[in-house]
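Task card 7
Instruction: Convert sequence to structure tokens.
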Amino acid sequence: MEPNSRAEDLPTLYRAILDRVALLEAAGDRGEARIVRQRATAAYSRAWDDRAHRELESLLRRAEKPTAAEAQLGRGKTRSVGRVMGRQRHRTASVQDH
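Output:
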């Protein structure tokens, strides 16, 4: 079985970023949410290449930093880039196997 290409990972990364942006907005960190969403949209809208992949990974890491409210509650990252991508690869592999 062939591993996913980096381009195939972009929708999963983008979706994870948008999920986290929603949490940032709900926590009241609208400025950070806006910046991350704008940059993610710009990266996702260009060519689906290694550069876009690196940018989206970087934005996901940035968006996963705990908000002030999460830090006060002692909450850390909700998920890591590796875990997001690992789940997608697993799901894809299981679909291809059946």
